[in-house]
């Protein structure tokens, strides 16, 4: 899994692998890696996005760490983007940003 190998790399580096949304270890829950390479617990990112106003345009769904758009470019082909697109397609708030029907 792309996220797990990245988490292992974080563990082996000097970086402290925590979810910046909840300040807890990334090891304890299901995680998602954005195309900007920031990693969050999936439940934290989902909660963050669900709490944005219902009128938020797709470009308004940004990474909590760097403000890059959460949604990968439609033509981006990479293991990280593929996993992210699959996970985002499972939640209604993200389907419009991926160009999918609700």
From TrEMBL:
Keyword terms: Membrane, Metal-binding, Zinc, Zinc-finger
Subcellular location per the Swiss-Prot or TrEMBL entry: Membrane
Record domain RING-type: where: 19-67
One GO cellular component, as annotated: membrane
Record membrane topology: Single-pass membrane protein
GO molecular function: zinc ion binding
Zinc-finger recorded as keyword: yes
Family (UniProt): Belongs to the ZFPL1 family.
Name of protein: Zinc finger protein-like 1 homolog
């Amino acid at each position: 899994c792309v996220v797990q190998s990245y988490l292992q790399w974080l563990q082996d580096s000097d970086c402290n692998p925590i979810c910046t949304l909840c300040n807890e270890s990334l090891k304890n829950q299901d995680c998602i890696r954005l195309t900007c390479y920031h990693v969050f617990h999936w439940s934290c990112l989902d909660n963050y996005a669900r709490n944005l106003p219902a009128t938020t345009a797709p470009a308004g769904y940004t990474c909590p760490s760097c403000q890059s758009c959460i949604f990968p470019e439609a033509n981006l082909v990479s293991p990280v983007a593929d996993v992210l697109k699959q996970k985002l397609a499972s939640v209604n708030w993200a389907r419009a940003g991926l160009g999918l029907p609700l």
